From TrEMBL, chains A, B, C, D, E, F:
Entry keyword set: Kinase, Transferase
Family of this protein: Belongs to the carbohydrate kinase PfkB family.
CDD domains xrefs: KdgK (cd01166)
SUPFAM superfamilies: Ribokinase-like
Occurrences of domain Carbohydrate kinase PfkB (ranges): 5-303
Record-linked InterPro entries: Carb_kinase_PfkB-like, PfkB_dom, Ribokinase-like
Gene3D superfamilies per UniProt: 3.40.1190.20
Protein name as catalogued: Sugar kinase
């Protein structure tokens, strides 16, 4: 058994091409294709892993382009379905300094959200795979997407495929937090590795934690999550939003009761989208490599930080590029 | 009473920015906002008329940008509504030579298609207006859109506002041609000026006409349409598709039993979208000016031809620019 | 009586398209249309106000494009004249870090600067308006422009239209400071609201003020200005130029003897042009809303800061976007 | 046994981004990756076939980007090697009207040209494949490339893999035509399907053929080639260069003594590079589909013509898009 | 004595960057620097000649960029002056098919037009030069420019420097044709080589010539011009404007009573600006090479035709590129 | 004797056009031409000096474009040779924050590296020149380049032309540091002015220096270098790499035993390439002006800092622009 599977929605991402221009006055959009789970697939592929992405996309040039954008990095897509009416779309105005980034979603009615029961044969899809990654976004897309996510997780669990879950909560996609909680509980019951942060736990489970700073609060949160959810492996991000252009970052890893904090990075933000996905991909890569917890959380956090310096949702960096950061060379010295 | 009203959907138009590139491999899209009725509004405004466009658009930057794109040309939008979920979107690959242009529509669920009964107060909207233009696209968007279009036409008729109707048939938007016919009949019963071509009459009404060439067939079609629909004013286009880059064009006008053919234009095609709308706008402008039939159809056809040389859906040309063409100066002599 | 009028010159703004490229080596310019008073008109429109801009522009596509750029945001232009020889033009190299921005003006002989007496009918233009905004740039363009600005101010005063004046001093446009002073005195005598800063007062009136910091100096300046000019409402900006990329900003408001300082903002500069106009527009918006002084100066200063993060001269932000900043959320958190 | 293998060099293609600009004054280049054999691989993949491309590329981002450009279309690259010093590069000025296109090659010392004996294990690479495609360019790159091409052909022949060969002669890459002839003879002795045209036969073998037009000359050439080379399946192109913007095209197919001519296409040229490759790919696709000779040559020629309308070296069209052309619909009617 | 001098104005040329877009809706302009005489200087330099361009430009980055644009091609500028207020500017909408190109000039008040008497030391400038080229545009810019042009011509004549003059008439720059005639007569009295066409002779001198076609009319015109002006060497262009995209071209040369017509070229037009300058430069180059009349007019006309295929005002082609056209290879065959 | 000569390689520089995009996913490259010695030539020319650049470039449009890029700034190139196979090329991914910039070199086999003995006639080239600048890069290109560099230095020394040498060490171009040392020793023996930094001395000569900070270490290094190499004039840079986006800079000058440190600059980095060349050019300019040591090192360091704010390898700033920085105005105040 080897290789990763991720399952979810990949969308058309449109951003004003001219830096710091607004949607209102833009007459050119830069085109990308991205989604939480496909971002992780791309990053894992760029790190040298075998990865497959499973989704459904319309049978038109936009659906084809979305798949092509993944295949170019070596992600395979042979179990992705074609059909349905449209590709989910989102528009980003990338913020700067005190001006926040703004996302306009237009994803209702997407091909994946409109799947029917039985379209994916999970037993076949998961055969001979080692890892399945899921996120909290897919089950929010539609009732069938929620059921499909749960089914994928259960099938994986039954087949001995390790399940990772990013407890990603998009408020606008759920009727209320309760509905999310019910479904997340179900997925988490089949989950081996959990990605989250205190904000998401607060949003979905209304947990809040004392502690003099975010690190302490996060550690408490992870201990609580371990107890409540019965999960032995977790990686949480901590992000201090200084402005749309400056973030301070770290990560905390938890494995079988041990808890370790990574170095902290101060980064100037080029594009903050997909950074959480870069973190998760970095951690999954570390798991695949069977690295110790310290190295795992350090690598994931270095990937997290590195992604902030790249335009677009996907972290295309190599293992070596991240290792340089992980080992503390933040000098920006030219590599010739 | 003065000025024009057009009612319909304006969409986000996305086209690969790099000429002759395909959607599949494009990473930049040129952005426009267009629709049959809004195109006519823009052209009428550029020709010097007072025009208002009525629609519904989502309350987000894309909806705002669509309105801004109209206002810049002087089209007013004060009765347009804001709300709903999304802006209809379409993607164009502009063809060349033997390769046809291709459109991917993603317009289901747009704000206008999802209107409820009573959102538009037609009596108020149409007060003091002289002309209302409608097309066959809007009633195809949803049941309520069909009812709204009929209501707008009836209200206009009752108020003495002249109604023009472009018998525009988008096959993919209708369950079948019968459903279109029923609604079109209803609209046509309130119509004063009809725009169409033999292809649309064939598609919707299954009419076909003998005749040794398209001109003869079209003239027969117009006589038939006048009899059947009881319409005294009509303008039809004739287009010979030589390739995606070369078209031969003319127009035929009908007024109270008189029928006149315009000059024929051979044009190299820059962007063929919105050319029919340029024709209709040209004819409506001529009506507003109370020009004789010959001048009216000549002006409309010159506008039709001129639009083929402009990128984008909208004909931004002035009355003077079209008159030069109408008067036969096709030399392309530099204007200094 | 309602709505704003601004009067002045709108110019063609050309900037090397490729970031940090110089005019010398640039082969593409980004195109905009801007001017102190039209910037304020756009910002007021984006904040939801009725606004009209009055100017004169050549009867060519550039004049048309300048008006279109305003109309797209909802600014009306029906009293703007067409004629004259050219549109004023300026070229900007946007600076970075220690390299300052550089402007090359080419505005002599513009349509507005060459107006003759009597072209604008101020009584008609100002009827039913509530606010007229003027700046120190327009009277510097030509003798007739100075007379026209004074006439506009006087007519407004007579008609009960409130007059705001931005004491904007462009050294290169005046023979000497004395000539500016004479005309400014004349305008100020009809002014209800004054926008300025200590630098402009120093430049024009040779005032300087003791005080351990810029805030104290500015407050003294405002008190002096109130006494000398007899103006009850003022808003001044304070800007610390740390570099072309980093500025520290605040604003001070004065109303009937009360003086209040806003929060201070540290911003990374995307485009520093038009920021003073964003401040004035924010303050005028607050006056229109009849907000208290504290909220007024806070809103104006938040608008001032926000504009630094947008490319181009105009502040297209909404009331809500500025309120978020005003209320202290500078985290740059993504808005989804 | 199924699927295609192509073997050769893929290069970095750089073209001035601004249409009709020259290399001398261009400050932006559009980037592509292309080569005769990789172009065929892409086209075969877009037509729905399993295809693999075998090459050697440097272990840097340019080598990676070249592979990514193939993978995006579904071409697999698992037997391609990484190493060597550089990627071959070429620069194109695309011509227009009477101005010819111009290519500046910079391909000496490329990774593929510098391979050593034994780097490719052809027995392994060709196992379970049905078709191997080679061209006359690869053996021209270096002595080892010539030996490798011959070895690939021989190994394929031994293993029962069908060999196709495009008798592509790049004068500047050979010391003289004799050296090419010796190697081509060797490859042709293992070839099942030959692609060529009369010009290449003239250049390499000094054959010339009487006949009142190019069609007759080409048919004679094919009969001669069949006799001399003992090849039963051939497809030749005929191109009339009217200008850099207008070409007239047809194709002639030969199978077991039968010879059939395709329709003729008049096309406006967008990008003439890679059109011969589109032809060969179309013919190979037809062979894979086991279509009769008439349909095969018609499809190949339609693909040949269609490619002229696309920017870039690769023909990304689908089977359906080419069939429309093949069936004679050259109207350029918009596909909605 | 060797090398060419040209004297005149170089302007900033701005064109919407996106092909077929209008000034009204363009937010990016492509930047060039061009003028009749500087275009000729560039073309002569690209053909391998020593050339100097003399002008006056403002002391700002735009003036510097204009000079840099010439120096890059090897044109020297050491006698060009710096000072004055502005660089002349023009905006082009490039036409297509039946839509003509449109130029908006904004050149009044340019640095060259505002020169004072005595700024140029023609004796020094012309020392050791062989050829001076002038056009009818420069004397139209201002009274002093007219005097300066005449002075340059007279000084050259006195010093034995050959004078060529392009009888270029820009209607909008002159009060009336009489004023042009008076000055042209003066310049022509010092002219050795005259460039013109029948349209210009008609416009300025009200000459018209019978003849069944443009060639015959032009030959009559040249004979008349030779008699009236006493000029022994002339080269005239003939252009048939089929559309903005298609032109038919030829040239006629006259030397000491011999008159020879060139081949005719049918070209698709990429950019028609500067084509007359390319013709004149080609002819001057031929004079420099001391080619016979037939070769001279053939080369000039081939250069004339070639320029139509290049974007921008300047003909950057080499002698060899033009010779290929002159020798009749219009096939557009790729040069590898 | 006057003016500067620099000798070396100029390369094609390709950078992803879209900011922060990677080579892997870029489909547009910005094009420049640069090299250590040509960068210095351009900067010296922009500062108002007479400069010539000597190199060898292929006889194709890329070689021509490289020369044109220098000529536009006024650098002369009359002794540069044309011929050879290719222009050296490099690709840059410009880093940001913690992500370092990355350079992919593809320069082997360039025209200059492949020169033969005797192609350059140094006695002729250097006649009447005052300064010759060389760097450590050229001798690394090939054995003949090393000999040529030494020959140029020796010839200059013999002719009384002052020689400056930038001890620039590109590890990847040398077999080992010993080989570099041998050649550098040879060049230094003819050198009058040395540019370097402690890193280069460490890399080539294995020198390391105690000292509590970089300033102290650098001063020790300079004293040692003066002693060992017998050089009386030196200028060294000090750079603290805080990140790819933030650098802290200073410079140290040494003249006849006096040693002076410049101000320190904190800069946000736009493009870090060519900054050392800007420093050397600034210092050479100061030497040309015969400024005192303090002013010389201050000017050089201000130029060094200023270049960090410009995109591209070359410092196009004027003397006045650098003086403003040198005099301490880092406020970024707009220059109008």
């Amino acid at each position: 058994m080897k290789g990763f599977i991720t399952f979810g929605e990949i969308m058309l991402r449109l951003t004003p091409s001219y830096k710091n221009e607004r949607i209102l006055s833009s007459n050119q959009f830069s085109v990308g294709y991205a989604g939480a789970e496909s971002n992780i697939a791309v990053s894992l592929a760029c790190l040298g892993n075998e990865v497959e992405f499973v989704t459904k996309l319309p049978n038109n040039p936009l659906g084809e382009a979305a798949l092509a954008s993944l295949r170019q990095y070596g992600v395979t897509t042979k179990n992705s379905l074609r059909g349905g009416n449209r590709i989910g779309t989102y528009f980003i105005e990338i913020g700067s300094s005190i001006r926040p980034s703004r996302v306009v979603y237009d994803r209702a009615g997407s091909a994946l959200s409109a799947i029917a029961s039985g379209e994916f044969d999970w037993t076949k899809i998961l055969s001979n795979k080692k890892w399945l990654h899921l996120s909290g976004i897919t089950p929010a897309l539609s009732k069938q997407c929620a059921e499909e996510t749960i089914l994928a997780a259960k099938t994986a669990q039954d087949m001995g495929v390790k399940v990772s879950f990013d407890l990603n909560f998009r408020r606008s996609l759920w009727p209320n937090r309760k509905s999310a909680r019910a479904i997340f509980d179900n997925i988490i019951s089949s989950t081996d590795i959990l990605f989250a942060n205190t904000g998401a736990l607060k949003d979905v489970y209304d947990y809040s934690f004392p502690g003099k700073n975010k690190e302490d609060q996060t550690m408490l949160a992870m201990e609580k999550a371990s107890t409540v959810f019965g999960i032995a492996e977790m990686a949480f991000t901590i992000r201090e939003h200084q402005s749309a252009s400056q973030n301070k970052l770290c990560g905390i890893g938890y494995r079988n009761g041990n808890i370790i904090r990574s170095n902290t990075y101060q980064v100037e933000v080029v594009d903050r989208f997909g950074t959480g996905d870069a973190f998760a991909a970095g951690y999954l890569h570390a798991l695949g490599r069977e690295w110790p917890l310290k190295k795992s959380i350090d690598f994931a956090t270095a990937a997290f930080a590195y992604k902030h310096t790249l335009i677009g949702d996907v972290n295309t960096s190599s293992e070596q590029e991240i290792e340089v950061i992980m080992e503390g060379d933040l000098s920006g010295h030219v590599i010739r």
